[in-house]
Amino acid sequence: MSLDNQIKDTFQRVFNSEPQIIVKSPGRINVIGEHTDYNNGFVLPAAIDKGVYIGISAREDDKIELFSIDYNEKYDTDTTSLTFGPELWTNYILGVTRILSKKSDKISGYNLVVVGDVPLGSGLSSSAALTCATSFALSKLFDLNLSKLDIAKVGQQTEHEAVGVRCGIMDQFASVFGQDNSLIKLDCRSLDYEYIPIELDGYEILLLNTNVKHSLASSAYNKRREACESAVALVKEKYAEVESLRDVTLAQLDELVKPVSVEYYQKARFVVEENERLLKAAEALKSNDIKTLGQLLYAAHWALSKEYEVSCEELDFLVSTVSTYPEVAGARMMGGGFGGCTINIIEKGKSQNVIDKLSNLYFNKFNLNLIPIKVSISNGTHEIL
Ligand code: GAF
């Protein structure tokens, strides 16, 4: 049964009624440009066909009743206390509700059913999909008139406040602004963006899920962000106009950061170079130069692994193994790191060969199943009903 029909069925069973609104908000991939968003740099993501679906209806009272199909769990609270439940999925939904309730008094009680097909922990941003779906649904239901950018920002703020991850705007922006068959080249400083049609002449994208999510992910993420901020503070002592790593040159890092902290220097240099790689990759995509694009992906991976130190054994194994396959133009870890997926650019029609060759090797080494994920590039958050 399709996910929107599952929502309707479950709504009927749990709430004895039809949802007033059903929305879908997608997960995302990112071709290149990791850990650049919170440094005011560029990113190159796209929304995918897999996402989170929410069905919602307003109530006469101030009760909030939530039901997750994936967890088969119900959780109730009310608009005054907005107490989070024991599971993280409730924090995301109620975190959005808290933020919007502070902005508007139009929010009253509601019933909500949620389901999704973004594999959890795979680095495809199921959490951004969930917060953006919630924010869009509440805006429609209670006439809050939120713009697309408002929705993305509320999603990001929820991640900061309700979950404690000081993420950038990439995932939420991609989920909301996604467009069929297009990548989004987003400038995270100005929030200007450009759609780049994804025409990988003769190539296709395949995601390979390591099936691991190492637990240090969120604390390590915040630590990387702090290292970048510390590097900026050091440069700022001499160059007061500098606001973020986007404004910093490699020469300034050599002069002012390297002598003080190798750790900050390495992390900051990665970000400056990752932005450069992204700009080259965007040009390579526009001129269909897949060879150059692939090389940039490999370079990004090893920099993420060795300099930014956000990879893991499983991701490194996948990337180093496919780099010996002639049908693979490029590959790298994708998203925040410490597990999740690699993104691979493979000659059209050869993905199954790669999966066949790699699956046994991966299982023998890690005793884990490698999970291939095929995605298509799709539209952003939208109403279904
Ligand atoms: C996670 C974050 F949520 C994003 O904001 C981004 O920083 C990404 O990691 C790394 O590029 O997905």
UniProtKB/TrEMBL annotation:
PROSITE patterns: GALACTOKINASE (PS00106), GHMP_KINASES_ATP (PS00627). It catalyses: alpha-D-galactose + ATP = alpha-D-galactose 1-phosphate + ADP + H(+). Residues 91-179 form the GHMP kinase N-terminal domain. The keyword ATP-binding applies. The record marks 28 as: Transition state stabilizer. ATP binds at residues 68, 121-127. One of its GO terms (molecular function) is galactokinase activity. HAMAP family: Galactokinase. Catalyzes the transfer of the gamma-phosphate of ATP to D-galactose to form alpha-D-galactose-1-phosphate (Gal-1-P). This is Galactokinase. It comes from Sphingobacterium litopenaei. The lineage of its organism: Bacteria, Pseudomonadati, Bacteroidota, Sphingobacteriia, Sphingobacteriales.
